[in-house]
Design brief:
About 70% of the residues lie in helices and about 0% in strands. The protein is an all-alpha fold. Helix 9 packs antiparallel against helix 10, helix 11 runs antiparallel to helix 12 and helix 12 packs antiparallel against helix 13. The termini are far apart. About 30% of the residues are buried.
Length: about 400
């Protein structure tokens, strides 16, 4: 979408076209964008969900002034990462970047840098200055991810620099060329040795960083562990690592190693929830961990937290029912199983477990519709089919005994 502004900018700077001609050449792209927006609008119908502060911490800032100051502070971090890409991390969500005000020194410096760059770009545009183009290119392509004009589903992400970094790279090449007064005709070797040295230093430095960062992407565990180190105040880095520990623990047969990983997972879940306690997904996964370790009471409490923050979280009702069933509280468990089934007509576990619960209570008539729905959802399941047939058999017996009663 930002290229709707970049395309005429390129034509203005490098094709030396007049404004009328630039507009005509840009029209096909405007048409494509309009078609895309129409298709998008027909699908989402304007019902864009509210952005959770967990993913974009700016949405949790009530003060407009602080939100803007923090967004500008983040823009400064983007500028810093272009030059010194360290540390790199996969997540910057709540609350890795806390709110700041316009008195923050880094926000002030970022504002001054931005104003300086924009003034230069405006003054030099008429001269078709390549640095003016690079500055405008960078600001335009960054505009939709800054959370200044359009709120998005992330506080900050390094991937948002991918397209804008092209403007930075072009500017660096021309800046070095200008500072060293390189003769681009290739006839003069003046300062070429210095150019090779500078280029070599840059290539080696960024190559080392690239290789070092690639190690973090070896697997999920490596990535999430590095995320906790480099983004320790993010709730999501801790919960992601907790989920990885928990998943790995459930796949192991070594009891000691399993217990060790479950304990690590519990600690990471608690750390993440202390940072952002309103995360139902994290509470649910913590509840799953408690179920796996046989801690039914804590599992029930965790799933109640899930429902408190998201009353439509179907699996939480089901898991509460499982814990209550383990305690022999079948009637109470039944209500939670039925609630899960009512909320999601495609949730197989809710229907099969509700049916089984009614069966165990010898309420075969009540079990029948739940068995039928479970069969519809998974007709290949031998277990469900056998249970449904047994329920029908017992239901038939009950019916025949009623008929024989005088």
């Amino acid at each position: 979408m930002t290229y709707l502004a970049i395309i005429p900018l390129i034509l203005l700077f490098f094709a030396n076209e007049k404004l009328k001609r630039i507009l005509i050449l840009t029209l096909p792209y405007l048409g494509a964008a309009a078609l895309f927006l129409l298709i998008r609008a027909s699908i989402v119908h304007g019902n864009v969900s509210t952005i959770d502060p967990l993913y974009n911490s700016l949405m949790g800032i009530t003060s407009t002034s602080e939100r803007l100051a923090t967004a500008i502070f983040i823009f400064g971090k983007y500028l810093q990462l272009l030059i010194v890409p360290h540390p790199l991390v996969w997540d910057y969500s709540f609350n890795q970047i806390p709110p700041v005000t316009f008195t923050n020194i880094y926000t002030i410096i970022t504002l001054l840098v931005c104003f300086g760059l924009m003034i230069y770009a405006i003054l030099k545009t008429k001269n078709r200055d390549v640095f003016a183009f690079c500055i405008l290119y960078f600001f335009i392509t960054m505009s939709i991810t800054l959370n200044i004009f359009i709120p998005i589903g992330a506080t900050m992400a390094e991937r948002f620099l991918f397209l804008p970094s092209l403007g930075f790279c072009i500017a660096i090449v021309f800046l070095i060329n200008k500072l060293l007064k390189i003769d681009n005709s290739g006839k003069s070797k003046h300062n070429f040795n210095v150019l090779y040295i500078i280029s070599g230093i840059l290539i080696v430095a960024y190559l080392i960083k690239t290789i070092d960062r690639s190690k973090d992407w070896k697997d999920n565990m490596s990535l999430y562990e590095s995320g906790v180190i480099d983004s320790p105040n993010s709730s999501r880095t801790h919960t992601a690592l907790a989920n990885e520990y928990s998943t790995l623990a459930q796949s192991l047969s070594d009891a000691n190693r399993k217990a060790e990983l479950f304990k690590k997972a519990e600690t990471e879940f608690e750390t993440g929830l202390n940072i952002y306690p309103k995360n139902p997904e994290s509470w649910y996964n913590l509840g799953v961990l408690y179920l796996a370790t046989g801690n039914g009471t804590e599992a029930e409490n965790a799933n109640k937290k899930v429902i408190m923050y998201n009353p439509l979280f179907v699996k939480a009702y089901n898991n509460i029912g499982v814990v209550q069933g383990q305690r022999g509280e079948f009637r109470t468990a039944m209500e939670n199983f039925k609630k899960a089934a009512d909320l999601d007509s495609n949730y197989l576990d809710a229907f099969s477990i509700t049916a089984a619960a009614y069966f165990n209570l010898k309420e075969y008539k009540n079990a029948e519709p739940y068995y039928k729905r479970a069969h519809e959802l998974n007709p290949q399941s031998k277990g469900i089919n056998d249970q449904m047939l047994e329920n029908e058999r017992r239901l038939g017996q009950d019916t025949s005994s009623i008929k024989k009663t005088p």
